[in-house]
Design brief:
homodimer, about 850 residues, mainly alpha, 4-stranded mixed β-sheet, 33 helices, disordered N terminus
Chain lengths: ~850, ~850
């Protein structure tokens, strides 16, 4: 009974064990099953996926294009509705708070309580609801989407529960008036929506919607929809989503994003028109800057300085955000307390922030009573707020009165607003609620831009333009530039420029915006990772970091420096015991198949699950029964135990007996699915107490003996699926190129070969370690001694190389010509790990176009 | 003297041959050399490239990022200057024509002659100049850039001559006032500029600018600059250039394009300000549509219809353009005539077009006197030209009077303009001058949009809006939408939407523009290839066509259906004779290296040039001399001929004798460079008259004998660079996936393997054939008999597969366990071509992210 259990067999084994032995065996076997079931959850995925792919690819592709349109239209429609309803609900929440606050204006204390309680309740509800329903809904969602689009399966991030938690949690969080954003979560919501829509349509119209690869494609369109319908910015949405989620982008999938985002933005704005909020479709934050002379050429230095300052500000924001999270984690007492009382932290943060923004208190100096939307509309106003340093001519529009304080200059208000909002946003976005940071940062950027603009307006009251006509400076233009630059710096994107044009409905400031955004990006990228990459690092998501712009040492690191030389492999002549051992030691999902230990010629790779099913086939119940029956026939004198055992097994062998036949047919048709379970349990158990386990579950010594025999047989690869062309690199491939290839092809691991011979393996883990820990890589630690000799032997074939090559060549000649095993062939695996390395830079000289260049 | 010649040796051989034999041998040898020199031109490239890459990669990468900025700034600056100066020159040319035309208004005939002669002269000059200096400068340049960025080396397209020809030719062509565009050629000019700048900086600052791979990266930034500074549209420029030139795009190179294009657009507009043409930096074709209510929701159907119509129009334009070219090619008499008199065709076309646009003639009905710029400004006017069908309220701005005709309705003028310009543009862009089609198409689109807009204005004189306020329809908005839609349909891009926003400086019509562009693209893409792909086909450029949206049969074709099964390969035990034979037969640039003919295990690939240098080393002059000297010592009785020969050779063997040592040191240090030449000549000659050649140039029978001996020796791979990991596919890889991988990695060819064994090869040629000739592929012709059985054996391992696998497995067991050659191993290459095919769909299941999905 060497670990072959379906549920029925398991039940049987338990009963059997209970009858034969004491309770100890029983307890052990159950605990084993539950652990193996856990492992199974992990292992089932890749296997199941492959089956879906191979069998459904064909069908789905044929009818694909037509359904893409329908799918994208549906996605756009649903997301526009969600966005609109959510906006409506948020506006309602905020209105309710204002109404409460306004209604209680007789009593300051009551007013304060109302002002503070409302957001605390909402945020606490949001945090609690998310925590209970789906903790995956917390945070922005862009880092997770980036990881998912990279090819990593984070299944629980795309469930219906997460969708509900995210939408309701986000609505409450934004309704509270905290400095939180909608964009990031909306990317996640749109992806969730796409995933669910796929499932729904699969249930409705059959399997063509089940293809996993297609879903990935749709997810990247969904990200565009998320941004698109959040800001009614289709073009910016597509570009932003490409920039934040992709490394390489297939231009032929471009239209999908554009189509879906446009449709979504259109419906989103049409809903506003139908609801009589707007007269027609216009931009979300429409500006009215003058068209004929938007800015003077001599203002450009000011815009450039604004951009550079925003670059530093963006880097600071990312740093601050990470610092807060890391501080809380490192402080063990805080950490423990927060882990026990999860709702205390968001409630506390909300309390502090809402206290500080309480309009009759501190809030009066920082326009505390305004919502984000109102603040932004005010900041993008085309009128100048201050002249000569005082706010006399301040022509108040509906919301702008909040910016005016009888005693305090408008500059002080702005500075106060910027400073307070800066740290508030950085803190607020660490709360465990669904929230993004884009909009708060955008707002801070706009305020900073407005500050610079107002300063310019004071310095040059009649504008800078020298010739006759007077064109006063437009501080609103600076606000637009600042908003784009700061959000670009925080997210490391250039497309925020396009988003502001679409948000404001004016493109007249295109050049200042572009200049500021590029400068901000240059500064921020050289100082800090983007906010999303920072979160990826904090959350330790399995993502390949980008190669920074300034890290030149990466070009000197080669695959041979970082690869794992001790590769787990199977040869064509391996025995089942070898397979078992390899499975027990290694944790890689696939294992290399080489010709023989001598030659090490890489033939392909085999998935772990395939090997597990091979092993379970070899030691399977039918073969086991065959053996037992043969044994029974040969040997008439057997104990009562064996007899009972056999008779029980005999009933199961009966083809009409449902549990067994059902089980077995399953494990052949679904190939690995059920087979995995057994072997996993074997593996698991053997790891705990190999011998004890054998004794416990193998009452018959002859079975154990038989198993030993079986394990010594060479593996029969007939029923095993082999990937005959796994991705290969050579030792001299640079880290930079390896990174490119990995991210281009979404690889998980690659084998390192030298003229066909396997010499190492590189997985994402090594690559990530090498990129992140580049300091150690440049030192002597990681580099092998040979690395330092590299540069000298670049051009000409040096002597040692020739000798090594000669040996290799001789060996091969010896092998293929006289065809007898000379003593030289015995040590062939030792030589020429480095033989051809000087020529290996040849790899991919034909990859000219897309792969950037070592 | 078996084919080892430098120039000096060649001269020597000629003299020798002349002395020894009659003139026939001499003539033969010269003709051989010239042909081999031709071949050398072709062969030199890949080899030289590799050397540059490998040796310079490291140096260049270290100091790379900083210099990128400098390079991009310089590129932007130069291109902005070129663009501005060219615009100035074009405006001057057009002004001159107007002045001539205006000055002669007393005599209609003279006026006509002036109107017609001027463009004919300019176009003829442009065509002649381009023809003489650099015929590569003809046409748009985007198709060529697309091909170059795909990895194909079209060297002559990036020379200084081409630059001069393109700039001057383009200026003249555009100055003539023909319906030609600036955008496409400007992409080419910018790329030329980038290539030349690289060379210049390489000459100035050393080799770091010589890296070919880096240049490709810079070229894609240059394409963005080209569009960016042509239209002062940085964002649209980047997106447009990505869409028309790339298949896969690396997001991390994004900033390069944005930075350079922004800088270039900025300088371009700053020059206009400094020249006092403009007061400040604004859009090129600034519009002044009202901001508060740009369009009504109910106008959207009209915009959608406009988009669909533009889609059909775009497809028609591409078709018409191709039809004209193909007609001229097929009509042999026309073709012959045109080939002889190359300038007649452009002159004729110009004559016809300018006659038809002669303002007092037909031109009066189609605003013939306006330049493209003036027409576009007029068409984008925010006023309505017609109310109630007559042009009474037509409020004339400077240029618009051309649109008004006393007798003829403005609608007639517009229709006439559209129809005439449509075919004129299609014809004009086939002229052999540097010219693009974007701007003419853009203009036609604007006119068509204006037509629809004016019609709408007539139909709804008070606007559609139902509620109180009257918002009249803005026909200029329709013109913007039409321009974006038609140019998007012709080029198959979505980013024309962004270009129009940047051109007009207004983004208020974003939703109509996006909807129309997407619809136009959907229609046009389903009917015709893009204009650039059409030109690629016409010019038969080596480009991989895109997989169309509707061609589902591609998903059913697999690599095994299209691969070449008869692969040329070399084994580790090959003799030099085998290498020679392979080189003579095959034309592939690289050859597969397998372990042995039996095993066929792929070890790597070797470049043709490497093999050629191997061969030339083996039969090299020094070894030849060694042999001769040894032979001379052994054998004292030799003829006079031999003596003369030897003494001559003796002088060359002297290490101080410059020609020979020079030659030989060259051929070792530069490895293949000079070596190639010899072997090519051998190959070439042998193809003509192998035996005769040997007789002619090998006066000594013992030399021939020696050569035969040398050829029979097994190859020494010591001095040969081997690419140890060429790209591999498996038989079951679908055409769709193959296409993706080829375009993603810019591959030239890929080997098809089955568990390490080489079974075929696929090159771009097969792939292209399969994609273009998909009709035959779905039939029985191309598909092998096995193909039809495929779908049945998808899920389970069928019997025949198992048997085959079993054989394979047995063979390997037999090989690796007892290690002796059994008879079974003799026929191993025959089996299992198909053995593992059912599992080969495993390939790249981990490529989830970027590769779209079979």
């Amino acid at each position: 009974m060497y670990g072959r259990y379906t549920q029925e067999l398991g039940v049987y084994a338990k009963e059997e064990a209970a009858r034969l032995r004491d309770g100890g065996g029983l307890r052990r076997s159950t605990s084993v099953r539950s652990r193996s079931a856990e492992l199974l959850e992990y292992e089932k995925d890749p296997c199941a996926k492959c089956h879906v792919c191979t069998s459904r690819c064909q069908k789905f592709l044929i009818s694909r294009v037509g359904e893409d349109w329908i799918f994208l239209i549906l996605l756009g429609l649903v997301m526009a509705l969600v966005s609109w309803v959510m906006d409506y609900a948020i506006a309602f929440c905020q209105q309710a708070q204002k109404w409460m606050y306004g209604g209680l204006n007789s009593n300051m204390l009551l007013q304060y309580l109302a002002w503070v309680t409302y957001p605390v309740v909402l945020i606490t509800f949001s945090a609690g609801f998310t925590q209970i329903l789906a903790p995956q809904a917390v945070g922005s969602g862009i880092p997770e989407m980036k990881t998912i689009l990279r090819g990593v399966v984070l299944k629980e991030y795309l469930t219906f529960k997460t969708f509900v938690a995210k939408v309701i949690g986000l609505t409450c969080a934004l309704g509270s008036g905290m400095p939180l954003g909608k964009e990031g979560p909306f990317v996640h919501v749109a992806s969730l929506c796409a995933a669910l829509l796929s499932k729904f349509m699969a249930a409705l119209f059959g399997g063509i919607y089940m293809n996993e690869l297609r879903n990935t494609e749709m997810l990247s369109a969904a990200c565009a929809v998320g941004v698109g319908c959040c800001f009614a910015a289709p073009i910016g949405g597509v570009l932003f989503s490409i920039e934040v989620t992709s490394t390489f982008f297939a231009v032929r999938n471009y239209w999908r994003g554009f189509f879906a985002a446009t449709f979504s933005a259109f419906i989103f704005r049409v809903l506003a028109v139908w609801n009589q909020d707007e007269e027609t479709i216009t931009a979300l934050f429409k500006t009215r800057f003058r068209l004929d002379f938007p800015f003077d050429l001599q203002e450009l230095p000011a815009f450039a300085i604004l951009g550079i300052a925003c670059g530093f500000g963006g880097a600071l924001f990312v740093y601050l955000n990470r610092l807060i999270v890391e501080c809380m984690r490192k402080q063990k007492t805080i950490n423990k307390f927060l882990l026990r009382k999860r709702l205390v932290f968001p409630a506390m943060v909300t309390l502090i922030i809402s206290t500080l923004t309480f309009p009759p208190g501190f809030g009066q100096f920082m326009a505390g009573q305004l919502t984000q939307h109102e603040s932004l509309v005010a900041l993008l106003d085309n009128r100048t707020w201050s002249r000569q340093g005082v706010a006399e001519e301040f022509d108040y529009i509906s919301h702008s009165h909040a910016w005016k304080h009888p005693q305090v200059n408008v500059f002080i208000t702005l500075i106060f607003f910027i400073v307070m909002k800066f740290w508030m946003s950085a803190v607020a976005t660490t709360m465990p609620v669904p929230c993004g940071a884009f909009m708060p940062v955008f707002l801070i950027g706009a305020a900073f831009g407005r500050l610079v603009g107002e300063t310019m307006a004071v310095m040059f009251p009649d504008g800078i333009h020298a010739d006759g006509s007077v064109y006063p400076i437009v501080p609103g233009g600076y606000a637009v530039v600042g908003a784009a630059a700061l959000s670009g710096a925080v997210t490391h994107t250039v497309s925020t420029a396009v988003i502001v044009f679409e948000l404001t409905g004016q493109i007249s400031h295109i050049l200042p915006v572009m200049i500021a955004v590029i400068l901000a990006n240059a500064v921020a990228q050289s100082l800090q990772p983007s906010l999303y990459d920072s979160i990826i690092r904090i959350k330790k998501l399995p993502y390949l970091p980008e190669l920074g712009m300034g890290h030149h040492e990466k070009y000197n690191v080669r695959v041979e420096d970082i690869m794992v030389r001790d590769v787990r492999y199977i040869t064509l002549s391996s025995s089942y015991r070898d397979v078992q051992e390899v499975l027990l030691i290694g944790q890689l999902k696939t294992l290399a198949l080489v010709e023989s230990t001598d030659s090490m010629i890489l033939l392909g790779s085999i998935e772990r699950s395939q090997l597990q099913s091979l092993l379970s086939l070899q030691l399977g119940p039918s073969r086991r029964l065959d053996h037992l029956r043969r044994h029974a026939k040969d040997n008439d004198t057997h104990t009562l135990d064996t007899h009972t055992h056999l008779s029980n097994l005999g009933t199961m062998d009966n083809p009409l007996s449902p549990p067994c036949t059902h089980t077995y047919s399953n494990s052949t048709s679904n190939s690995a699915r059920h087979g995995v379970r057994f072997v996993v349990s074997v593996a698991e158990v053997s790891r705990i107490h190999p011998t004890h386990w054998l004794r416990v579950l193998n009452p018959l010594p002859q079975i154990a003996e038989w198993e030993e025999q079986q394990l010594d047989e060479p593996v029969d690869f007939n029923n095993c699926k082999i990937d005959p062309a796994p991705f290969q690199l050579v030792e001299r491939t640079s880290l930079h190129k390896t990174h490119t290839i990995f991210s281009l092809l979404g690889l998980d691991h690659a084998y390192v070969t030298s003229t066909g011979r396997l010499v190492g393996v590189v997985s994402l883990r090594e690559l990530r370690k090498a990129i992140e820990g580049s300091v150690t890589v440049t030192g002597v630690k990681v580099r092998p001694p040979l690395a330092s000799f590299r540069d000298s032997g670049n051009n000409t074939t040096n002597v040692s190389d020739v000798t090594e090559l000669h040996k290799l060549w001789n060996r091969h000649r010896g092998l293929s010509l006289p065809r007898d095993p000379t003593p030289e062939t015995q040590n062939k695996s030792k030589l020429s790990t480095h033989t051809l390395s000087h020529s290996n830079t040849y790899l991919f000289t034909n990859i000219q176009n897309n792969i950037p260049k070592t």
